[in-house]
Specification:
It is a single chain. It is built from six helices and three strands; from the N terminus they run ααβααββαα. With about 130 residues, it is mainly alpha-helical. It has one domain (about 5-130): Arc Repressor Mutant, subunit A (Orthogonal Bundle), CATH 1.10.10. Bound molecules: zinc ion (ZN). This is Winged helix-turn-helix transcriptional regulator. GO terms for molecular function: DNA binding; DNA-binding transcription factor activity. Keywords: DNA-binding, Transcription, Transcription regulation.
Length: about 130
Amino acid sequence: MKQPITLYTQISNLLTTIGNPVRVQILLAIGTGEACVCHLESLLELRQAYISQQLMILRKQKIINSRREGKYVYYQLLNPEIVGIIQKAGEIAGVQDDTLAIQNPSNCKCPKCKMEENITSRNSSDRGKE
Ligand SMILES: [Zn+2]
């Protein structure tokens, strides 16, 4: 019996949604921990409006979710396995795994980066006392 086309459409919809360079980058970034739009903005060096648009597409397909904390909205993966699919696709496409590692942007002022910055500077001042 022929499978109903909706079955293939479901798979196709998911692949189409993640099959965009900017969205791939967003998903890899969120895969290492939730992020706000301003974080993605400094990471990807793209306009906030454009990033928001991509986040909306990902959320509509139920790939990511968001939560509000104060004036910041944080985005996270609904299903972390999506990162595995992207890494696998990268592997097949011949991309070196370590080149996909996402580094935090140094110029970001989001609460998450500020927190990490504080931890780093505290550690280095501790080291200074020794
Ligand atoms: Zn940040």
